[in-house]
Amino acid sequence: MPLSYRGRARELLLAKGIEDYNFIRIIHKDGVELSGILIPRAELEDDKHIVLKLENGYNVGIAIDSILEIELLSKQREIRKEEKLIARKAPIKGLPRVPLIVTGGTITSKVDYATGAVKPYEKPEELLDLIPEISEIANLSYIPLMSIFSENMTPQHWIKIAKEVEKEINSGSEGVIIAHGTDTMHFTAAALSFLLEGLFKPVILVGAQRSIDRPSTDAVLNLFSAVKMAVEGPIAESMIVMHGSPSDEYTYAIRGVRARKMHTSRRDAFLSVNEPPLAKITRKSIEILGRNYNKRQKEGEVRAADKMQDRVALIYSWPGIAPDFLDFVVDKGYLGLVLAGTGLGHVPTRLIPKIRELTKDGIPVVMTSQCLFGRMNLNVYETGRLLLDAGVISVGDMLPEVALVKLMYVLGKTTDMNEIRRMMKENLRGEISNFLSITVFPPGDVSYV
Amino acid sequence: MPLSYRGRARELLLAKGIEDYNFIRIIHKDGVELSGILIPRAELEDDKHIVLKLENGYNVGIAIDSILEIELLSKQREIRKEEKLIARKAPIKGLPRVPLIVTGGTITSKVDYATGAVKPYEKPEELLDLIPEISEIANLSYIPLMSIFSENMTPQHWIKIAKEVEKEINSGSEGVIIAHGTDTMHFTAAALSFLLEGLFKPVILVGAQRSIDRPSTDAVLNLFSAVKMAVEGPIAESMIVMHGSPSDEYTYAIRGVRARKMHTSRRDAFLSVNEPPLAKITRKSIEILGRNYNKRQKEGEVRAADKMQDRVALIYSWPGIAPDFLDFVVDKGYLGLVLAGTGLGHVPTRLIPKIRELTKDGIPVVMTSQCLFGRMNLNVYETGRLLLDAGVISVGDMLPEVALVKLMYVLGKTTDMNEIRRMMKENLRGEISNFLSITVFPPGDVSYV
Fold first, then answer.
1. Catalytic annotation present for A248
2. Which residues of A touch B245 (CB under 8 A)?
3. Which domains does chain A have, with CATH numbers?
């Protein structure tokens, strides 16, 4: 076998007679001993690191300066079954077809060891080569649709993704996986929930909080779980599949309209707000936790809506917010406003005359709560009743971000105020529930173990 | 004893010979049997409910239409020790002085049974009469400073409260309690953290998610815990004391700059974000959980800052947010902007030129994360590095709402950009930590029991 490394890394490896895919052992200067398969790194310009695939399936990048000893254990490593599968290009007969629509993000990125920053892979195949077990359950095809960090997603990108999903499902895919940056993954998941009308197969957004060439990556389990859910799961909705705990044991499938990224960096950053996750997925099983869900069908036709009104704004209220702040709506030609009020859905009463003007002018004003967890109730306090009287649309236990996406979708369908109000208050995709379990809240007690 | 009830309630009670403070039993149409003391309701115009004080200390309002049977158990009820204490007007010698500054909110409100809505008490003494045990540990004095729902609080109200706290502490109070609506309690708690310079006694915000005349009220335990923490606790900071679990067993004292209301209606709605609560308080004990805190001193002098810049805005970013949206900052004369970006602290790259213009014009732009939990890091991804280059001030693991309040405070002190940057990035009151415990996050697993 050849050796794909360059520069100093190459020198170090050559001196020991080590080639790509050899089984080697390293003693790290921290005293840790690591053994694993040397992964080829042809694409990597950096010559200061080598990458090992450990027995547990993780890949670990190791700075060569930190290596005390390096030793070749075996050249004659047995080629494992799954590696043979990778080599084969033609689809395996009988395995379900699952497209992986790549949009960008950490899951399709690697660490640039020179700067410590994260950059997109140029060839997304690198990703799948590291998770050979997927080839045993699905014929995964790559669809490199775009390559953007998710903070740069717009409603127009959501429509583009929805159209691609529509094409794939209507042409026989068992499910669709979308590799996506985690920053705004929950916005896209909510958007696809609404845009994909008549959905009858699973649509799964998946990402990574740590890139796949890092030892702590969550990409492997997340992507494997996503494929498993896409081919075996009974749920035909737009979902997010990401780690369910800090350990690498299981993932949750969270309904797109209930997901929110609630931690900057943990692997289990996504929470299912106001309802349990739809399912818990391990390497061996799928356990359904959701009470009501849209079931997978053999036959059907999904239609992707192609309009979203992007002149809609989301404002989290704060003490001291001035009425003139809301002038931007008219000044900048916004056509809808979602407020994330405090508590049960309140804003300062001094804003109410301005809100009344907006709703009179045909601009829908939707009220949600910045508490995120729990349910709006504008009937308890005077401020709430005044807001209702001013025309505010209260939307139960819907998340602010989901209300924003839904309003964009609804305004793409109609400009009739009564119809907007009716649609916003109607549960279309599980974004509003009538029953709210009091247990589905981060318990203050257990969090502080 | 007289009977204070009116109309239909009065008829029902008179028919059984029942008077105020009698010990009575009721069989509810739901099959529940309740016995307790009939609480006088002179202030209540409603004639459709009676209120019982149960053995467990709770007050429960009962619709007379739901009463199947009502029975007088005892007229000769023994007057309990704490009720004698209430009767005495003069302060008890030796008990510490603790003022209760009343600002409004549910804790000083009652249900208007006619409409189901909540209205403020006209006489806040009604509140304390229901929690006689407080009289045993402190001489509580009422300071009815204002009577507003907390959504109507402004930075000017915060200063007014801070000035009152300053006066009380510098004149010998052992601690100060502030009754406050829960909607924006965490904003006020953060504001007091910054405004009260040289604080050497506890300052405790307390509220209720359910009003005190409802059986499920949290007001009793919250207020009792607040008084206990004010007179016995070792921590001299601005804190929130509210339920720590859905049960009525303990409260948490949460650092003002770490608290956030995270549920619309649960009694344990406030979470301590990115660090454990400072203390757990039961009826019998105070358990300190915080690692670092400002210690109570016998002597000292607190000074309340008297300036806050209220032309500061908070914007939670969303996919599709347009650069022209940020024009409001200049158009409306805002002097500071806090962004709650996605993930590690990102906004769409198309906003970056506008952000650069703002910082060049001397308007500080502070970056936080809408994930709420976790820590900013603008060095990982390209977008983050571009934001830093554009002059954005990244503030570690500070909450967006706390960054807003802090920026108002800092801009009240200085308009020098270097000084603003230095102060925003410096840990002044525990709002930024260097060490972030990964366990302090709502665990996805346990939430879904």
1. no
2. 443-445
3. 7-74 (2.30.30.520), 88-304 (3.40.50.1170), 312-425 (3.40.50.40)
